[in-house]
UniProtKB/TrEMBL annotation, chain A:
Binding site for [2Fe-2S] cluster: C80, C85, C121, C125
Cofactor: binding comment: Binds 1 [2Fe-2S] cluster.
Species of provenance: Sphingomonas gilva
MF GO annotations: 2 iron, 2 sulfur cluster binding; metal ion binding; oxidoreductase activity
Cofactor: [2Fe-2S] cluster
Gene3D superfamilies in alphabetical order: Glutaredoxin (3.40.30.10), NADH-quinone oxidoreductase subunit E (1.10.10.1590)
SUPFAM superfamilies found in the cross-reference section: Thioredoxin-like
Cross-referenced PANTHER family: BIFURCATING [FEFE] HYDROGENASE GAMMA SUBUNIT, NADH-QUINONE OXIDOREDUCTASE, E SUBUNIT
Iron-sulfur recorded as keyword: yes
Keyword Iron attributed: yes
Source lineage: Bacteria, Pseudomonadati, Pseudomonadota, Alphaproteobacteria, Sphingomonadales
Similarity annotation: Belongs to the complex I 24 kDa subunit family.
Protein's name according to its UniProt entry: Formate dehydrogenase subunit gamma
Keywords linked to the UniProt accession: 2Fe-2S, Iron, Iron-sulfur, Metal-binding
From TrEMBL, chain B:
Region (Disordered): 69-97
Protein name as it appears in the record: Formate dehydrogenase
Lineage: Bacteria, Pseudomonadati, Pseudomonadota, Alphaproteobacteria, Sphingomonadales
Domain of life, per lineage: Bacteria
Xref: Pfam families: FdsD
InterPro entries from the UniProt entry: Formate_DH_dsu
Species assigned in the record: Sphingomonas gilva
TrEMBL record, chain C:
Signal peptide annotation: none
Top-level taxon of the source organism: Bacteria
Organism of origin: Sphingomonas gilva
Cited SUPFAM superfamilies: 2Fe-2S ferredoxin-like (SSF54292), 4Fe-4S ferredoxins (SSF54862), ADC-like (SSF50692), Formate dehydrogenase/DMSO reductase, domains 1-3 (SSF53706)
Any single biological process term in GO: formate metabolic process
Domain 4Fe-4S His(Cys)3-ligated-type: 96-135
GO molecular function: 2 iron, 2 sulfur cluster binding; 4 iron, 4 sulfur cluster binding; formate dehydrogenase (NAD+) activity; metal ion binding; molybdopterin cofactor binding; NADH dehydrogenase activity
Family in the record: Belongs to the complex I 75 kDa subunit family. In the C-terminal section; belongs to the prokaryotic molybdopterin-containing oxidoreductase family.
NCBIfam families: Fdh-alpha
UniProt KW keywords: 2Fe-2S, 4Fe-4S, Iron, Iron-sulfur, Metal-binding, Oxidoreductase, Repeat
Protein's name in the database: Formate dehydrogenase subunit alpha
Length: 155, 97, 945
């Protein structure tokens, strides 16, 4: 028999606090908080614990952009693409960010340094272009601010 | 004892044991009735012959039931254990219900 | 997808007594409250365009094609999700609606390959139909993003999944959830990226999919489509017929092109299956054209000779002359027959008629001997009828369900889907089974109690349940007083109340925690409508009949009989095992379960048949074999049953068959029994004959011939020829005449005829003047026998018990994809799911023996030994091992013993004491048998493969 990935035991331990089916979302949050992502190999254990099918768990994980199936980079930059930020120059900032960070939109750098993702409105439209950098809002991004951010991230 | 006889002895003892639990006090009659209604005449003849030659392995209830079988008396054609849709006068009814 | 012309009302019916009246396009219609506007419109012939709606699934409201306008309401609500209301005025076709629908359809088509002419669903595609219905003539959107380059998944052997044609209506996902209850499909992602995903974006074959076909049926496009349709083209006609696998009795449309079967699609009107199917009935019919099917009669002087192909006349004449010779030399009772529970009622009736009237004895038996004969005995004793009390629909009214010794998700999958639907609605489940079967816990279904008893202790557990019911005052006193024999009840109640029957006293024997037994008993007695469903885990024991009586006792004591939602429900094994029993296949009973000693019944047959019937019972299958070894039984006509593989103690069966002078096997294939046969008569499949099958709910349904028999004759014609050849006249032109004869001599079938079956679709017996349309639920106002009979159920331990030499208990069962001996399913792609039998063993027992998952192991009992590979799992309890018996190479029945039920001789398949150890390869018996089998299958002039 194949040896089980030790993380799966921890997933089961987290799942013990919940009951199907209403426990699925909070459990997914817990798992992502614990591991940074919800690996596909966790899904059978989650499904088993909550008495759901693997398909159902997969459907929920993939429906929400905030659930990750693969680990993110050490830093996560989420740039707003919504209308107000676009009106304030977000498209140019996005192009610049792709170049400075050396990663395509929606991807993680091969060295794992950073993940760049789109987000659709952070609720700070008056101060755009906006971003969340490792969960911290950053406003009025211009070329200089982007340079500083990139330098800190890639340091 | 032949393999077939041995098997019949086990079968009749099993039936007798069951009726001893199910109908204490009536186990001999119930066993006799069952053998008559469910066993081919060759099986009955063989077990009767076995009893006549000593009846090795047979339980007391089995022996009594087989002895009754050997008397050639026949139970009623439809007994309580096997009756089906029979009214008080013995007529076969439909079993709609 | 729906058959062209089949009416799809869009949403399921509403169940309400209250009615509402509204107008749709100015026409008045009155419907039950809760009915959707779409359905209300469809009921008056107005079909509103739709894609995501179909009447087998709850409304979903996603496709936005079925928009309507309602006076006084703003906007354009979807008609599938909008319930009809009193006084509503609805318009289904306005300029604005036309424009909206055309716009929606244009978007769908903009992301759909326009390859209709070469598409497998061309002419049978709802998307195509609806594009026509909304008048789409052009698509303005060109080169935008699309899903057209997605790869096709051909992993399932029976259907393809082509996501490039998918419109993401979710019908497949919903069918898997709502109808099948497996939840194997989902929509992955969101928005434009949404797509159908089996499990975790896997190929269908490796996903959780059980290949029931519900998704394929639900798909409105060619996204999910049968491979056979893609290969052959769309069917052009169909016949409604009945599946020939299990006792559920699903009805199907056999969809044909010429004489070629294109697909089997579950028939929506079918009352047993309600439009659902499983992987066997839906897809596993290819055996009918398998290259190993034998189409010419064959004979041989000795079982060591090769077969010689002969014509029908020679084969029949040879058989008849052998039968006559043997009777002349060894007496009238030296020959017999076995009817087939796979064949029709009419064919079964003819075989027993041939034996009783033609052979002049009662040596006729059927495979029910080895499955549900204790059901016949037990229920006849308790209630007066040898059959289950309910229809399948009844489960939808059950509140508490006891499942004992049955594994419906594998053995009776279409019923299991109904059961799971009811459990998802909130009914409670109690499982009594040594194994943690799937339904104990599977997505959205979880048993309230699982009682994992030690194999062989059913009677002790059920008597303990009765103890709790009686001693805790849970008896339905009114029911018992009105409906049952009081003295017998009092005797029984005193018996079960004895402290030695308490759950605590029997716990060490059964290994079931006493508190679980008490909780289960309370739930069954007081949890609303209580229904008991059971299978061969009840009957195939030394106390099989006693267990059936114990079940009947529980149902009577709690008043759970005589209405919908309750009852005693045997899940019968074979498609027509109920029917074969009804038709008088037992050596002691004439059709309609009248004992051969019944003078009046015999007189009726004598008048019609012109032959005297022996008033003493004949031999049962195991006794026939024993008598053969003793030289008293010499010839056997076996229609459609493989006793060598399916009956217990294979070496005894082989010795019995080898001792006979003329064994005649009538079958589709050279089965294992044919290795010991002197005559082989090629049989016909269920697709090649007319007749009827009777399912587990006593439902008689038509089997309709959709193609000519490849072997030249339907099975009843073969029996008729044989009867004529031995000098007993039979002259039927059509099976309907046989049914007329059955009705004439069988009170419970008095009202049955092919005309009535065609008119009503199906009939549940009893059907007679008192119940002209049949009887869905029996014993409504009283038991057939009069008063219900309580019987003491004293536990008697089987002689087969674990000890130092054989410390483990072997129990056996089935798997979804294979059917019994596998003669049919092994000759289909179903073997891709299950190509060998495995021995399930608990990790503890495996470790003790140094057995790893996948190792070859030897299983030995006092009867024999065999080898197979191990599957290490905690699904079985320590001390218990389990295997299926679908593959002849496994020879599982070499290990099972000649122990049997005390009343019926039904073999004790479910308990064999065994030892298990590592092994290097096949046992001596397996090697010898393999060699015999290879030699025996030689046919003169046909090269071995």
């Amino acid at each position: 028999m194949k040896t089980e990935d030790p993380r799966i035991g921890r997933v089961r331990a987290l799942a013990a606090a919940y009951h199907a089916p209403d426990g699925l979302l909070p459990l997914l949050h817990d798992v992502q908080a614990a591991f940074g992502h919800i690996d596909d190999i966790f899904v059978p254990a989650i499904a088993e614990a909550l008495n759901l099918s693997r398909a159902e768990v997969h459907g929920v994980i993939t429906f929400y952009h905030d659930f990750r199936r693969v680990p993110a980079g050490r830093h996560v930059v989420r740039l707003c693409r919504a209308e107000a930020c676009q009106a304030r120059g977000a498209r140019a900032i996005e192009a610049a960010a792709v170049e400075r960070l050396g990663v395509a939109m929606g991807a993680t750098r091969a060295d794992g340094a950073v993940t760049l993702e789109p987000v659709y409105c952070l609720g700070m439209c008056a101060t755009g272009p906006n971003a969340l950098v490792d969960g911290v809002p950053v406003s009025r991004i211009d070329g200089a601010r982007l340079d500083r951010l990139a330098a800190e991230i890639l340091a | 004892m032949s393999a077939t006889t041995d098997k019949l002895v086990r079968m009749v003892n099993q039936i007798a044991t069951e009726f001893e639990g199910q109908q204490p006090g009536n186990a001999v009659a119930a066993t006799w009735d069952h053998l008559w209604h469910f066993w081919d005449p060759r099986m009955r003849d063989r077990i009767v012959t076995h009893l006549d030659t000593g009846g090795e392995g047979l339980s007391a209830t089995s022996r009594a039931a087989i002895a009754r079988l050997g008397s050639r008396a026949e139970p009623q054609s439809q007994t309580r254990a096997t009756e089906f849709g029979v009214d008080a006068d013995g007529n076969t009814e439909s079993d709609a219900g | 997808m729906a058959w062209r012309g089949e009416i799809d009302l869009g949403t399921p019916p509403a169940v309400s007594q209250a009615m509402v009246t509204l107008t749709i396009d100015g026409r008045r219609v009155t419907v039950p409250e809760g009915t959707s506007l779409m359905r209300a419109a469809a009921l008056i012939g107005t079909s509103i365009p739709k894609l995501c709606a179909t009447d087998s699934l709850e409304a979903f409201g996603s496709c936005r094609l079925c928009l309507v306008e309602i006076d006084g309401r703003a906007g354009y609500p979807a008609s599938c999700t909008t319930p009809a209301a009193q006084g509503m005025a609805v318009r289904t076709q306005t300029d604005r609606l036309k424009q909206l629908r055309k716009g929606v359809m244009e978007l769908y088509i903009s992301d759909h390959p326009l390859d209709c002419l070469t598409c497998a669903a061309n002419g049978d595609c709802e998307l195509q139909d609806q594009a026509g219905a909304v008048g789409l003539r052009a698509v303005r959107y060109g080169d935008g993003a699309n899903h057209l380059d997605q790869a096709k998944d051909s992993s399932n052997p029976y259907f393809d999944f082509d996501p490039s044609k998918c419109i993401v209506c979710s019908r497949c996902v919903r069918a898997c959830d709502e109808v099948q209850g497996t939840f194997a499909l989902t929509i992955e992602g969101m928005g434009f990226a949404s797509k159908v995903s089996p499990s975790q974006s896997e190929p269908f074959f490796s996903s959780e999919c059980v290949s029931c076909g519900a998704c394929v049926q639900a798909c409105p496009t060619a996204t999910l489509i049968e491979k056979k349709v893609a290969e052959t083209g769309t069917p052009d006609r169909f016949e409604v017929t009945t599946c020939a696998y299990c006792g559920v009795g699903c009805t199907f449309r056999a969809e044909m092109r010429g004489e070629e079967l294109v697909r089997m699609v579950p028939w929506k009107e079918g009352k047993a299956n309600r439009g659902h199917s499983c992987v066997k009935g839906r897809f596993a019919w290819g055996y009918a054209n398998h290259r190993e099917r034998i189409l010419s009669p064959m004979i041989r002087a000795s079982i060591d000779d090769p077969w010689r192909e002969v014509g029908w006349d020679e084969a029949i004449a040879h058989t008849a002359s052998e039968f006559r010779r043997i009777q002349a030399e060894h007496g009238k009772r030296a020959i017999g027959g076995i009817t087939s529970s796979r064949c029709t009622n009419e064919e079964t009736f003819l075989v027993q008629k041939l034996v009783r009237a033609g052979f002049g004895n009662n040596n006729v038996d059927t495979c029910a001997r080895v499955c549900h004969s204790p059901t016949g005995y037990g229920l006849k004793t308790a209630f007066g009828t040898s059959a289950g009390t309910q229809d399948f629909d009844s489960v939808m009214a059950a509140d508490t369900i006891i499942l004992i010794g049955a594994n419906p998700t594998d053995g009776h999958p279409v019923f299991a889907s109904r059961l799971k639907q009811r459990l998802r609605q909130g009914a409670k489940l109690i499982v009594i089974d040594p194994r943690r079967i799937d339904i104990v816990r599977s997505p959205h279904v979880e048993a309230a109690h699982h009682l994992p008893l030690r194999p062989g202790t059913n009677v002790a557990v059920l008597t303990a349940v009765a103890h709790v019911i009686v001693t805790e005052g849970l008896v339905d006193e009114d029911f018992v007083r009105d409906r049952c024999d009081r003295a017998e009840f009092d005797d029984w109640a005193a018996f079960v109340a004895d402290p030695r029957h308490s759950p605590e006293a029997t716990e060490s024997l059964t290994t079931v925690p006493a508190e679980s037994v008490r909780a289960a008993a309370r739930l069954y007695a007081k949890g609303g409508n209580g229904a008991i469903y059971y299978g061969l885990g009840v009957t195939e024991h030394s106390q099989g009949s006693t267990t059936v009586l114990a079940i009947a006792n529980l149902a009577m004591a709690t008043g759970n009989l005589g209405r919908a939602g309750v009852g005693v429900n045997p899940l019968r094994g074979q498609n027509n095992v109920q029917g074969s029993c009804d038709m008088g296949s037992f050596p002691h009973e004439l059709s309609g379960y009248r004992h051969v000693s019944d003078d009046a019944a015999r007189a009726m047959f004598r008048a019609l048949w012109g032959a005297d019937i022996d008033h003493e019972p004949g031999l049962r299958i195991p006794n026939m074999l024993g008598a053969a070894i003793d030289g008293e039984f010499k010839a056997l006509y076996i229609q459609g049953e493989d006793i060598l593989q399916s009956d217990p103690d294979t070496r005894h069966v082989a010795a019995g068959l080898a001792a006979m002078e003329c064994v005649v096997v009538q079958d589709l294939f050279l089965n294992e029994t044919a290795n010991y046969a002197h005559v082989f008569l090629p049989g016909s499949t269920f697709l090649e004959k007319n007749g009827t099958f009777t399912n587990a709910e006593r439902r008689i349904q038509r089997v309709r011939k959709v193609m000519r028999p490849l072997n030249g004759l339907e099975d009843w014609e073969i029996t008729q020829k044989l009867a004529q050849a031995i000098g007993y006249a039979m002259a039927y032109d059509h099976p309907s005449q046989i049914m007329d004869e059955i009705a004439a001599v069988t009170p419970t079938f008095a009202g049955v005829s092919y005309d009535r079956l065609d008119a009503l679709g199906s009939i549940q017996w009893p059907c007679n003047d008192a119940a002209p349309e049949g009887t869905p639920v029996m014993h409504l106002d009283g038991f057939v026998r009069g008063k219900g009979k309580f019987v003491r159920t004293e536990y008697v331990a089987t002689e087969e018990r674990a000890g130092p030499r054989f410390p483990l208990l072997l129990t056996t069962g089935r798997i979804l994809s294979q059917y019994n001996v596998g003669a049919q399913t092994r000759r289909t792609e179903n073997s891709r799911w299950h190509d060998e039998d495995r021995l399930e063993i608990h990790p503890h027992d495996a470790e003790q023996r140094g057995i790893l998952d996948g190792d070859w192991v030897k299983v030995a009992s006092r009867a024999g030994d065999t080898t197979l590979r191990a599957l290490v799992t905690d699904r079985v309890a320590p001390g218990v091992v389990y295997t299926t018996f679908h593959h002849p190479a496994t020879q599982a029945n070499v290990v099972t013993t000649d122990n049997s039920d005390w009343a019926t001789n039904c073999p004790e398949y479910k308990v064999t004491a065994v030892q298990v150890g590592r092994s290097n390869g096949p046992t001596d018996w397996q090697e010898r048998y393999d060699e015999r089998s290879r030699r025996s299958r030689r046919i003169e002039g046909v090269a071995a493969e």
